[in-house]
Amino acid sequence: MIKTLTNLRKQEKEKFVVPKGVQDVIPITAIYDDGIFQMGKDKFSKTYKFSDINYAVASREDKESMFLEYSELLNSLDSGAMTKITINNRRLNRLDFENNILIPMKGDRLDEYREEYNKILLEKATGANAIVQDKYMTISVCKKSIEDARNYFARVGADLIAHFGRLGSKCVELETDERLRIFHDFYRVGEESSFHFDMKETRKKGHSFKDYICPDSMEFEKDYFKMGDRYGRVLFLREYASYIKDSMVAELTDLNRNLMMSVDVVPVPTDEAVREAENRLLGVETNITNWQRRQNSNNNFSATVPYDMEQQKKEMKEFLDDLTTRDQRMMFAVITFVHTADSKEQLDNDTEALLTTARKHLCQFGVLKFQQVDGLNTVMPFGVRKIDTFRTLTTESLAVFIPFRVQDIFHENGIYYGQNVISKNMIIADRKQLLNGNSFILGVSGGGKSFAAKGEIENVILSSDSDVIIIDPEREYSQLVRALGGEVIHISATSQNHINAMDMTKEYGDGANPVILKSEFIMSLCEQLIGGSNLG
Fold first, then answer.
1. 23-92+130-268+331-399 adopts what CATH topology?
2. pTM for this structure?
3. Which helix (H) or strand (E) holds 478?
4. Under 8 Å between Cβ of 255 and 394
5. Strands 330-341 and 259-267: what pairing?
6. How far apart are the first and last CA of the chain?
7. pLDDT tens by residue, 54-76
């Protein structure tokens, strides 16, 4: 039986040869239980997901401190490894949203309100911005064995988590299925809810993990690719401006489409960088000396050094000063970008929008010609780099491409509070999960304070069994309470309900002497009645 199966497999291999290029679409050769992927013989990678911080809305001083902290993070990257920082815009998974956010029906008379509220939530989720932005950092390193790689990632991961913690960002390691989920959601748009991957079952059956994430088909053309029924294009940053704003990355990734932007960072050891910079500076000074010698031999003693040579000397001196006195590191960077669309026409329009955004910042994107496969492998968080459009940058120059923008609050089983003004995403919060669960509603007259409070009361009543007590001197919540099946108690001089200030039970005072506590309360009440002065 075993011999027969072996022969069949040999025949199948002889029948089907994977065309060159197709086997390179997903460059992973092996995956491990702890989220480490292997590419080739001795290259391993691991991905960390980090949360956003409120960089865009921070004050200038706070922005500077965040920028410097992020520069420290980049300085701490190991020169023996390659780091990939990825921003991933993915479509909101409607099934997960319905399971986590929508209010379940309970079969009571409030179900009609629950249906209406769920309808509003779905409109908000799909109408404004159905794109969720995730941020990843992928470290890839060459090691002889998986054990060496595990030890390395354990050390580097702890360092990364500590640095992100100082920034106020939460960094977590991604498990194998979470990493595969990223690729599945990119390759199979619209099928996000159908992803399921069980490592043990897959291993038992002898299936390939690529079957769970691959698209139905991939066709690569000169300057775009087709992935199933969708179209995609990979771009790279060709020319950089002298001065780049820190808002450039946020503007580029603001497109309401499925896209990924990756910054590949290869740090250079400081001693090598300083040696290289000194050699370059020496070369420029030698050119200037030779030029002056030629002028002197022609009896032109008053000639000034040409502008381009002066500029080269000045820039090399500044670069060397950065490395030696300002704690900067020299880094090679590659910036790649992939975006997908439903049609070729939409793809071309989106590409033009991205090129225009880059031109606004005096940078220039280029479309990869006949390198779409390599570009796609580079931009995806596999941990490989197959595009060599390197640019030499210092730490500060690279930190300008800061991935942070604004923090989104999206708790499971939370309450809808409105929309984030910057990211246009829904604010779904559960106050019990926050560090301080209290709230205070402030706003101008007519700004919607009461409406916000009523919205929260409705959501709490419809989605949980919590008790809501409202003290309402203006009597503006009576209609809402009656509609939700609550009870309204009127307390006034003419009403049937009164509060007995002298009332006291055994439980009064939480273990202390109830008589003493009640006496103090009555004394303070009488003091207030006579105007707040000391009572004799």
1. Vanillyl-alcohol Oxidase; Chain A, domain 3 (3.40.462)
2. 0.79
3. helix 478-483
4. no
5. antiparallel
6. 104
7. 898 888 899 999 999 999 999 99
